[in-house]
Every structure is written in C-alpha cells, then in structure tokens.
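Q: what sequence does this backbone want?
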C-alpha cells in the first residue's frame, strides 16, 4: 500500500499511521484504507496495545458511518488512546 508516496507494509506500525492521521499528514480515507488492508493481520494479534488501538479505530469508523460521531470526535477518540500516549 502507498500513502503520500511512502510505501507502507500492511504489517507496518499502526501507531505511526494513527499519529500521521492525527497530525493531518494523511487523510481519513488513507487511514481507513490502511486499516482495512491490514484487517487480517491486526485482528489476529494477541491482546495488546496495538490491537486495542485497532479496535478503537474500527469502532470510531463504524460510529462515524452511522452518524454517531463526526470526524473531530473520531480524531479525539483516536488521540485519547493509551497506546499513542500524549501527542
């Protein structure tokens, strides 16, 4: 997968991708595409902080798709993840 001209592996660092999204270096669509392409890898992880972040992102995206959350609220949700720490 390619984002902003930088090749990223599906098993790349979810923390890096989420941080880029929070810093507005990639779009929501880029984040969605990356998460969707890494679904089988991320869903298969044992319980860990990265999997928790993945779950938070998936939940937020689902809530956005049904109108329960807007993008600013989603960005806050992702930014509040313990895995990302204080940015």
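A:
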């Amino acid at each position: 997968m390619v984002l902003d001209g930088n090749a990223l592996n599906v098993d790349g660092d979810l923390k890096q991708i989420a941080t880029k999204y929070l810093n507005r270096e990639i779009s929501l669509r880029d984040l969605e595409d990356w998460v969707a392409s890494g679904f089988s890898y991320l869903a298969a992880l044992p319980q860990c902080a990265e999997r928790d972040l993945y779950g938070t992102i998936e939940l937020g995206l689902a809530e956005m798709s049904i109108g329960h959350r807007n993008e600013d609220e989603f960005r806050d949700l992702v930014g509040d993840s313990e895995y990302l720490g204080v940015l």
